[in-house]
Amino acid sequence: MVRVGGIYTPPDFPAGHRQALKLDVYPEFNVDSQPGRKEPHRIETYYLEIDTDEGVRGQWGPIDAYQVDPILRSLRPLLLGRDPLASELLFDLMIRSDRHGRSGYFMTAVSAVDCAIWDLRGKAAGQPVYRLLGGPVRTAVPAYASMLGFSIEPVWAAKMACEYKAMGFSAQKWFFRYGPGDGAKGLAKNLEMAEAVREAVGPHYRLMFDAFMAWDMPYAREMLVHLEPLNPTWMEEPLPPERVGSFVELRQVSGVPLATGEHVYTRWQSKELLVAGAVDFLQVDPDWTGGISELTKICALASSFDVPVVAHGHSLLPALHVAGSQSPTAVPYVEYLIRHQTHKQSFHRKLIQPVSGFVELPAEPGLGFELDDSKIDSRELVSLT
To answer: ∠ CA 162-165-171 to the nearest 5 degrees?
Structure first.
């Protein structure tokens, strides 16, 4: 594990709004904040490195600080000395090793290790990961523009929606700022933004919305009824995903398709949503749900229910490689967080981003990224204290 640091210069995006949060029901937390700093500033983050006796190294990152301790304390001793190419065995050992380890922070640590193992496997074979997974089924994958942090003022949102449509993005996702704690006035503001964006991009353009689990059941019912005439491609996380029965009920309230999954762990939790008929799109994240190994299993599972998987875009590369190995009907898009992906890739030699709405599959072995020493002014090996 290494911690790297350097100066990051954010892109010059216009001022925007944050998304709704579950804590917003309490007024002390329901305050506006600007999403991110605009001036150059120092950042530090972590990268996982797995070395082999043959000199092949697998990497993954950036990862979050909360993943570091379980990786070093619990997973490293378990994996040392084992066959690094036996990814199924290694994954099974990791998820069996902790009685509380099948979800939450521990599973995100397993996910990071699994992604690094796939990077290692690709480098050992001299092939991109998507080839090891059976791809490519296409040379580039459509990306939808995820507009987290953009202004939700109707005029500005409409302007940005038109601009990103003109760039070639065939779909966009916009984030609601208001929830139950904001009353009828907040609900009206949510709808004003949604209506403005829909009018700007036209009636048949793919348009999604996200509530980040911040609503309750009565609020979600009312919002879905009002959103139905706008023909959303999906409404994401109106409620926390473990409320499976409530998702089923919401699907009966209106014809708005529902999506969730970024806070769902492993194929077994995904199966609960699918068997119940609770979702129209599944959005598990390979950074959290169990890595590339688990995401590929979830894709196979979801395809048997005819439910597409559009992985949440915490990062890009693991989801991109899986998408590159899956039928376009099984995985139609990857998510590209417009304001955040440059930060995620700030220490990488090459910025992977959409061109005319498509992300090309990397040609390099493994996951296809390399740290750029010219962007790094500090590097520290991290060990247990």
So the answer is: 120
